[in-house]
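Everyone, describe these structure tokens:
***
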Amino acid sequence: MRFVLRILKALALLLVLLVITAASLLFIRPPELLSVGDGYAAKIVCSNVFIAGRGAEDVLHDDVQAPGNPLLRLVRVSVDRDNDRVTARFMGLFAPSYALYRGAFGCASVPDGNFEAAANAAPFDPPAEMQANDALWPEGEGTGNPADGKIAALLADAGVAGPAMRAIVVVRNGRIVAEAYGPGFSAKTPLIGWSMTKTVNAAVLGRLMLDGKISFDDDNLLAQWKNDARARIKVSDLLGMESGLAFNEDYGDVADVTRMLYLDPDMVSLPANAPMEAAPGQRFRYSSGTAVLLSRIWMDRVGNAQAAFSYPHDALFSPLGMTSAVFELDARGTFAGSSYLYATAHDWARFGQFLLQDGVWNGQRLLPEGFVGAMRTPTAASNGRYTQGQAWLAPGAPSAAFGLPEDTFWLTGHDGQSMAIVPSANLVVVRLGLTPSRLDYQPQTLLKAILAAVVQSGEPKQQAGSQQKAQPQP
């Protein structure tokens, strides 16, 4: 009996030593996967608390833990409102990661904990705040009495709207005809677009094209590419996701995309140093790193840093009346053009209407003629799925497979964000939510139902500037 007790005590001691050793290793050198998870939690909680005004624990549970990796259920967060910071730790102890709120520029992941550098990277002179008004949308936030009964009924159908829908806005002939919101969300809630941000970022670059400061054919885009094959990469190659740069977009593990977003304070560094895996224009590779490179390139072309920080607001958001838009910067001062734009569903719909109108707003051309055409023109390397302007023709499955109009094109984003633009029906449909791909929801289902419900009364009324031009090759 004493022998058995000694064995049990020895095993207990060994177990304690193993726990202490494991805990020490987690403190000293936590696995990158834990750091990615904590970085994701800190960033998402920060943006939703400080931009959208949501509760930290609700965001942690609903946005971070419920749809994701089971390990995320062990993440704990704390919000320091005095210093505008969020800290996330695995089990409340390990692999700490941080996010910092910087006012008009939203939250940034600060994986190195260097809050001083992150604070200094954001300008002290942010763009002037815009105020919404009660005029009829899109001039203001008023919708009058827009409800189309058939479409409203569709939006109330969970099978059509999709799991965990947070906002749907339907715009027909330039006016909101129906909208719906999930529990806890409203027309005033800024929501993340994830990769829909890529298309907005492309439009910001398009504004700079109109100013003559950049073109589709520009190459020698970064100084560090000057003496190698990457110097041949053109702006058009980046816009079409055909740069030839290697990039791993797998969100299930520690990959290039998660490393860029949550482990590196300078999001430009990884894609800028990526090796070539193909000649420019020869291979399609969807890459969030490519969108961040485009951000850095157009910011460098603006002329000076302060003007670059204000450019999305001054050149796009203010003219369109997107009063809620928050385009977030990384910890070193580059717009996160791949992923991080928050805006209300009304403002996302304004952007969609802007594209429907061929880049014209209130009679003023804001994008070069043909730029939206490039957004609607498929690339050969993507087999017709992706376009020349950071948008999709076939997100998952071709429009024809659903019986949708051939001119339909899409903005799509992680966890079920989508925007369908159908010029022939003068229709924009924005759908935002928290709908992971594993649920197999397809936004084409929603669009097809709405199109079927639209009362056809001859040709739709054209908006000013909405006539579609011939679609040139950039």
The radius of gyration is 23 Å.
